[in-house]
Model the fold of this input.
Amino acid sequence: MLPFSYQKPANVDGAIALGRNDRREPTRANAQFIAGGTNMLDYMKLGVTRPAELIDLNGLEESELRSVTVSDRQIRLGALSRMAEVEDNKDIQQRAPVLTDSLRLAASRQIRNMASIGGNVLQRTRCEYFRETSWPCNRRNPGSGCAALEGFNRQHAVLGGSDACIATYHGDFAQALVALDAIVEVAGHGGKRRIAFADLHRLPADTPEIETNLQADDVITAITIPIEPWMTRSRYLKIRDRQSYAFALASVAVALDVADGRVRDVRIGLGGLATVPWRAREAEEALKGQTLNEEMATKAAASAFAGAKSRQHNAFKIALGQQTLVRALLETNDMRV
Ligand code: SF4
Done:
């Protein structure tokens, strides 16, 4: 591991100032914020990430960064709250079980005890060619090429890829957040602002090394989720090679509003299949106003993958993704709420 310096600011303004100053001085470039560290330290040990300076957010004094509040209309998660705390919150489980499900099926309990909510949504891909620094990788080393395009790409994305990068976004919680129209609260040198969760991550296009729309000194302070009463009918289905501690081959977050046998509203997030947390809006539109049965779910699933593009080893993901979506829709429809 390369040597790095370490700072622990006392409040958000201090963190922003450190982040901004560090990036203005070439000798101290490449400073990184750290909270739970479960992703960052992993990649530092592998040599994938080489920050000259770590800015530790765990000492920030603002209590709202650690609080979790639940009302009838909104859930607000402080960015430093841990995944396990949110997972254990009974009010969240009652109002939007898709959030709880997606956390329970992520990583291990030990990791969820450490990982912060803000850090979790910023986790980086597990593409094996990204993790192993001897391979060309446009995301890690811009302009070097993409070893996955002609390599072993079984785990890679069929939605949202480009000729520069087809790395999958591997998180689970983010699929529920994108489905429920979550908002990311951010503080930066220009003040506070709110970003739609769907706009947080960037498609790789020609610049896969730029993964989010955050500025270098932006600190995520909270994630808010607007809640509707019908979101009690929601769930997260994850398909993986083994039933524990594995990333999704395909996953689906669904929230469903059904009245008089017809779909009034539906939200769908797809995981393990795309380069970013993926909202399946075509499938949502196909379902609205319809009676949800297997035939209708199959049609909607086909529309969700109409633009999918497979490579040599991942074509199975298109069929798997469709089947996972059909099953998730039908099981959510059958939930007793
Ligand atoms: Fe790198 Fe993306 Fe290619 Fe993986 S898929 S090797 S992350 S450029």
Summary: The two ends are 51 Å apart (CA to CA). Residues 125, 127, 129-130, 137-139, 146-148, 165-167, 208 surround iron/sulfur cluster (CB under 6 Å). The mean pLDDT is 95. Residues 316-333 form the longest helix (18 residues).
